[in-house]
């Protein structure tokens, strides 16, 4: 690239920093301005035309011809940034992205269900197996009419042969006019009721103890969330669990 074009690039970059507040930007972000100025006809691969120029200058040890350039290098790649005159490039620490699965785990661990089970663990001096499943406690058949999913239980205390289920009023918000149904042909709300009843029946027949703890046993807010008062809540749970406390 000619010196005239290099000077034109410098002019576009200087004008950008004169009209914007950022102290530094990824080099690719200047491409629209460079195209408008006629330095390049189009962009591709997110700033490739400018990166080619910078790589050539880098090979020639001539990056100082574009004094705004900062090269961030690692073992495999070089990342190009443009920095305002008199400022310094200060990389932003990246926060690891949280996956949907991790978000689901965090939500569950902060839930009232886990709060109640944690208190039960403390009272019973045993940690429950969370989302425990038995091979004999199954949901409805899937579309293939063969497979069925094991129904998870909130907590199972092995030494006490005790299942604890925390019950909160479900908010399904289903449109009453909706045709949507579960594979069993009922609404999700009705299916939840059927599954809860199935758990009671099957666990009873298998001689597994079951205690259902309802949200309304505690003080709760208008969102039906427990107003957490650990000392008071432990006393409530001790009364519910008195048969299993040593």
Overview of the molecule:
This protein has 246 residues and is α+β, with helices and mostly antiparallel strands. The chain has 2 domains: 3-83, no CATH class; 100-244, no CATH class. It has 7 helices and 9 strands, in the order αβααββααβββββαβα. The strands form 3 sheets. The chain has a 4-stranded mixed sheet, sandwiched between helices. A 3-stranded antiparallel sheet has the order 1-3-2, with no helix packed on it. It has a two-stranded antiparallel sheet with strand order 5-6. The protein starts with a helix and ends in a 6-residue tail after the last helix. The model has no long low-confidence stretch (mean pLDDT 88).
Give the SSE order as H and E letters.
HEHHEEHHEEEEEHEH
Arrangement of strands in the largest sheet: 4-7-8-9
- Percent range for β-strand residues: 15-25%
Tell me the major beta sheet. Answer: 4 strands, mixed
| Termini Cα gap | 84 Å
Radius of gyration: 31 Å
Residue ranges: pLDDT <50 for 5 or more in a row?
none
Mean pLDDT: 88
What count of helical segments does DSSP give?
7
Question: How many beta-strand runs?
Answer: 9
What descriptors fit this protein?
246 residues, 2 domains, alpha+beta, single chain, 9 strands, three-stranded antiparallel sheet
Give the topology, please.
Blueprint: H1 3-19, E1 24-26, H2 31-36, H3 48-59, E2 69-73, E3 78-83, H4 100-109, H5 112-124, E4 129-132, E5 138-141, E6 148-150, E7 153-157, E8 162-167, H6 188-205, E9 209-214, H7 230-240
Parallel strand pairs: 8-9
Antiparallel strand pairs: 1-3, 2-3, 4-7, 5-6, 7-8
Helix pairs in contact: 5-7
């Amino acid at each position: 690239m000619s010196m005239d074009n290099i000077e034109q690039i410098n002019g576009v970059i200087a004008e950008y920093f004169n009209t914007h507040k950022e102290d530094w930007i990824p080099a690719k972000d200047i491409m629209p301005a460079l195209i408008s100025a006629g330095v390049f006809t189009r962009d591709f691969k997110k700033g490739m035309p400018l990166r080619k120029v910078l790589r050539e200058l880098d090979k020639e040890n001539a990056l100082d011809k574009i004094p705004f350039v900062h090269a961030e290098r690692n073992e495999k790649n070089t990342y190009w940034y443009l920095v305002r005159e008199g400022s310094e490039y200060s990389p932003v620490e990246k926060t690891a992205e949280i996956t949907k699965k991790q978000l689901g785990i965090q939500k569950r661990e902060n839930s009232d269900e886990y709060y109640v089970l944690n208190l039960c663990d403390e009272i019973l001096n045993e940690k429950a197996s969370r989302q425990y499943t038995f091979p004999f406690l199954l949901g409805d058949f899937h579309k293939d009419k063969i497979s069925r999913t094991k129904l998870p239980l909130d907590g199972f205390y092995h030494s006490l042969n005790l299942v604890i289920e925390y019950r909160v009023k479900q908010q399904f918000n289903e449109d009453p006019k909706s045709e949507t149904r579960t594979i069993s042909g009922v609404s999700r709300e009705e299916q939840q009721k059927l599954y809860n009843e199935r758990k009671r029946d099957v666990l009873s027949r298998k001689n597994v103890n079951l205690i259902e703890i309802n949200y309304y046993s505690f003080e709760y807010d208008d969102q039906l969330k427990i107003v957490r008062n650990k000392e008071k809540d432990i006393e409530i749970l001790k009364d519910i669990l008195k048969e299993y406390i040593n």
